[in-house]
Amino acid sequence: MVQIIKDMDEFSRFLKAAGCKLVVVEFSAKWCGPCKRIYPLVHAMSLQYQNVMFANVDVDDSKELAQTYHIRSVPTFQMFKQTQKVTLFSRLKRAICCYGNGFMSKPIFEFCGADAQKLEAKIQELM
Fold this sequence. Notes:
Blueprint: E1 2-5, H1 8-18, E2 22-28, H2 33-48, E3 52-58, H3 63-68, E4 76-81, E5 84-85, H4 88-99, E6 110-112, H5 116-126
Parallel strand pairs: 1-3, 2-3
Antiparallel strand pairs: 2-4, 4-5, 4-6
């Protein structure tokens, strides 16, 4: 299931409720064609990946969230763990602590566009 998020308080509660689970947030808009096309695929992924939490933020309805998370285009996907956005640094820390074999140099915490395969690859990488 994809949770619709309307404001910062609701978003904070959602991230806290996720605990250690991966959270995938889609920032979208009702008028956006690519957003409309990918939404059913995101919903299907939310049913497939039960250990991942999915949320949708409409940038027109939630301007504060869009501004806070620096959304410049839609759709934009951002990933969170333990209430924090997954960043290149958190991946580096995980690689050093858990794997000891380095890290890939490209950031993986955010991407723009309606690419379901890329989204699913990121989810699988971060689970």
